[in-house]
Amino acid sequence: MAESVTVRAPGKVNLFLAVGPKRPDGFHDLATVFQAIGVYDTITASAAPAGISLTMSHLGEDLPTDDRNLAVQAARLIAERANVDLRERGVHLSIDKHIPVAGGMAGGSADAAGTLVALNELWRKPLAPHALMDIAAELGSDVPFCLMGGTAIGYGRGEVLSPVLARGQHCYLIATMIDGLSTPAVFREFDALNPTPQAAPEVSPTLLHALAQGDTALVAYAFRNDLMTPALNLHRGARHVIEFFCNNSLTVMVSGSGPTLIAQVDSFERGQVLAERLATWPHVADAFVAYGPVPGIELVRTSRRAASNSPFGKDHPNGDGPNHDDPTVHDPIDDDANAYDPNAYDPNAYDTIDDYDFDDSIDVDGPLPPTEDLPTLFDEPTSEDLDESISRHPSSRPGVRPLLRVIEDPDDDASTATASDDANITPDKDS
After folding, report:
1. Domains along the chain?
2. Helices (H), 123-199
3. What is the pLDDT of residue 359?
4. Pfam families annotated for this entry (predicted)?
5. What residues are designated binding site?
6. Whole-angstrom distance, CA of residue 150 vs CA of residue 90
7. Of 118, 137, 205, which Cα lies nearest the Cα of 362?
8. Are the beta carbons of 426 and 71 closer than 8 angstroms?
């Protein structure tokens, strides 16, 4: 049985966010297009004698580690649904946080989603994917998408998901701010600026067409975020930083409820040059470049107790080196797993594994996007176009989401596979 499981969870950006009327439950109806991007938190779940404990490092050092943390809430909820008695089978969570905190990139939701997958693996998969999706929806609006990854339309609070055909990859320049923003505060500002009831939100067909065609210029043209003005009203520093993007002829948008700013760039190299300059601006905590879309939760390491009759001599793949007698076997993992490598993307490394096919778990009972204009958008590409799209990025395949990525050799028992707010404290309402 695994003694620990390590996963990494990607952040997200909202390419489109339309805010509708406020609902009786205090949330707003949303129409959004999520895209998972290559900046990651790493979550390790380890067996412990009893209870739940949490430590956080890097960007998470100042975050709460008690029940206010969404990852702890996720651990309690999955233990309850899986009938795991935490008094007898405890867990320790360790989160190495690289997704910006309170920045509109779903860092807390990503940690919760990663915790669900890590514990489901640690406890030998007691829950099916649809059950994990149900738990995710209870935890927060962004958590279901963080499980799913790729590109998706979100309706309702954002938890009613439908995969989107997204061809190729997009390169984003991202600027995070020194000070974060409260999601409820941004929605309150939105309500103050929009006192009359809003129309039911709909996703732009232009954006869906641009994503289906892989038209990066049109994707940037179709950017929309109804929370951008309220976020900038509350964060004057981010308003100042927008000047940098405008001076460099970039279409800029706030991600989610902000204050993180995103813009598409035409190449990783140009993005790196701009990021180095942007990082020196006042109010900017960090600037970096990331590609999207990427898959959801990646399972990258397990640690198992060695069998008593397996001494692991030096001829064993885990047996060479000075620690070959260690009774705990650790699967290999890149020590720099969180560093983004633009050359590391390998389409052939992705595969679809039924164990975590979250597409089968998507809630389609809620409001769905309007369909009148969509058939022509998705019928237009030829079969040759789709074959080319799939070869460039497998998550483009309609109806198939490569949620699992084999990190090590899939034929090796020691290898693992990958399963494919913003502060780790989740608000009760979005306004």
Report:
1. 2-166+290-300+332-405 (3.30.230.10)
2. 129-139, 143-148, 183-193
3. 55
4. GHMP_kinases_N (PF00288)
5. 100-110
6. 32
7. 137
8. no
Instruction: Tell me the DSSP string of 201-258.
Output: P---HHHHHHHHHT-HHHHHHT-EETTHHHHHHH-HHHHHHHHHHHHTT--EEE-TTS
Annotated binding site for ATP: 100-110
| Cα–Cα distance measured from residue 285 to residue 262, given in angstroms and rounded to the nearest whole number | 14
Residue 327, SS3?
A: coil
Instruction: Show Cβ contacts of residue 306 under 8 Å, excluding neighbours closer than 6 positions.
Output: 312, 327, 328, 329
Assess whether 314 carries a catalytic annotation.
no
Provide the token pair at 11: 């952040």
Pick the closest to residue 301 from 197, 199, 206, 412 (CA basis): 412
323 contacts: CB under 8 Å, gap ≥ 6:
none
- pLDDT, residue 357, reads 59
Instruction: Please give the pLDDT value at position 30.
Output: 92
Scan for tokens 């993180």, then name that residue. 260
81, containing H or E segment: helix 70-81
Q: How far apart are CA 293 and CA 396, in angstroms?
A: 10
Pairing of strands 2-22, 224-225: parallel
Residue with token string 């738990």:
135
Alpha carbons 203 and 158: distance in angstroms, whole number:
12
- For tokens 């300059």, name the residue: 277
Say whether pTM exceeds 0.90.
no
* Tokens at 410, concatenated: 């899939």
User: Three-class SS of residue 273?
Assistant: helix
Distance of alpha carbon 196 from alpha carbon 179, whole angstroms? 30
Contact 165, 35 (CB under 8 A): no
pLDDT for 426 equals: 43
Would you call 326 helix, strand, or coil by DSSP? coil
DSSP H helices, 253-307, are: 268-278
Mean pLDDT of successive 10-residue stretches along the chain, which has 431 residues: 87 94 89 94 95 90 88 97 94 94 86 96 92 93 92 89 90 92 91 86 93 92 94 92 90 90 93 95 93 92 50 31 33 36 35 46 40 32 39 33 31 35 45 38
Q: Is 12 a catalytic residue?
A: yes
> Rounded to whole angstroms, how far apart are CA atoms 274 and 263?
11
The answer to whether the peptide bond before residue 293 is cis (omega within 30 degrees of 0) is: yes
Catalytic residue among 29, 96, 142, 430: 142
| Residue 373: its H or E element | none
- 46 beta partners: 4, 92
